[in-house]
Amino acid sequence: MTDKPVIVAALYHFARLDTYRELQKPLAELCCKAGLKGTLLLASEGINGTVAGPRAGIDAMLAFLRARPELAGLEHKESFADTMPFYRLKVRLKKEIVTMGVPGTDPTRIVGTYVAPEDWNDLITDPDTIVVDTRNDYEVKIGTFENAVNPETATFREFPDWVRRNENALRGKKIAMFCTGGIRCEKATAFVKSLGHDDVFHLKGGILKYLETVPEAQSAWRGECFVFDERVSVGQGLAQGTHRLCRACGAPLSPEDLRSPDYRAGVQCGHCAGTMSEADRARFEERQRQVELARERGTRHIGDGSQPGDR
Q1: Is 179 a catalytic residue?
Q2: 299 pLDDT tier (thresholds 50, 70, 90)
Q3: For residue 140, what pLDDT is reported?
Q4: Where is this region: Disordered (predicted)?
């Protein structure tokens, strides 16, 4: 049990979902009535997203989705927050629920071997295993597994090209891949196996399930895990992390980054200082002024990225 009032549910499921367009409106209406906020993506290949809200609302949404035969096997992961980590609800139609851009990649036909969090350490410490972080570079920088390879991708669309460039290094090895919640690895392992690699594995439930399941004393994770909501990052046990977002460039900022002389709340950070136009900087400064005015009124502006205890 937890005393935190907001449930954060991360979910995805690959399935042939021919009626995904017709599902958009009733799903959005149900989530709205249930007091949920966040983003859900629907495509012909399935559903993906993260939403937050009260216990009853989350349960109602999950029951609605699992009542459809195609989504009966949908799994989700839960974490908790003191305050709502999203500003609005979005239910969107997409070509892919996670965009890799390789037509024909279908995790319902071919996929890597799932490895439970409690068995992950044994696999990644095997000298014959290459451990690959399938996330984007800005995510990897704030935390990853010991000795994991960083493909240094800006988007997931770049991952297939990285694999092709490194075919010789990967050939004949055990390939262990991981991502935040597991969805990117579904497509990553499907793609890698389609190239003829046999020993392909991925972390079941992703980093989030590992941090929730594996005790800190036994953890091979180093740093924090970036999450796509206002919490920014989580640590062991899915506790709130220490990172904040730069409201100008979107980079996750460590406590050290926040102490940089280049950092100006809401306006710039050390990563983007000097890269913005005068018009952009003026726009960010006005937004920050509105944030501060809202605080004075005892309300919260949509551009306010502060966390409890920041003020």
Answers
A1: yes
A2: low
A3: 97
A4: 283-311
**Looking up tokens 């367009």, which residue turns up?**
21
Per residue in 225-249, is it b (16+ CB within 10 Å) or e — as a string? bbbbbbbbbbbbebebbbbbbbbbb
pLDDT of residue 168 exceeding 90, the answer is: yes
Of 119, 117, 152, 118, the C-alpha closest to 134 is 152
Q: Which residue among the candidates 31, 179, 185, 269 is catalytic per the annotation?
A: 179
Say which residue the tokens 């991502």 belong to.
179
C-alpha distances in Å from residue 44, one per residue of 37, 41, 160? 23, 10, 21
Q: How far apart are CA 43 and CA 113, in angstroms?
A: 24
Task: Return the CATH architecture of domain 6-93.
Answer: 2-Layer Sandwich (3.30)
- In terms of CATH architecture, what is 113-223? 3-Layer(aba) Sandwich (3.40)
- pTM here? 0.86
Whether 305 has a pLDDT exceeding 70, the answer reads no
**Domain limits of the chain?**
6-93, 113-223, 252-297
